[in-house]
Structure formats: structure tokens, C-alpha cells
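User: Before I run my own analysis I want an independent prediction to cross-check against. Here's the chain; please return only the C-alpha cells and, at the end, one sentence I can use as a sanity check.
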Amino acid sequence: MNPDLYVHILNTTILLSYVKSEMLLKWIFQQDNDPKH
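Assistant: C-alpha cells:
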């Protein structure tokens, strides 16, 4: 999976859309470099 596809999937999921609308700018996506991701 490339970064563009990953961002596209995040932007098009229902859950993320809900989070964006409910939390506005208070929500921050964070990910560490753990290989299990």
C-alpha cells in the first residue's frame, strides 16, 4: 500500500468522516513506526 492510497482510504471511510464532522480540528491522527501497522 502506498501513502496516497492510504490517505485516500482514510479520507473516504465513514468513520473518519464522522470524526471530522464531530470533532472538527480537535482530532489528530497519530501513528508510530511499529511494524504491526
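Sanity check: Residues 6 and 12 are 10 Å apart (CA to CA).
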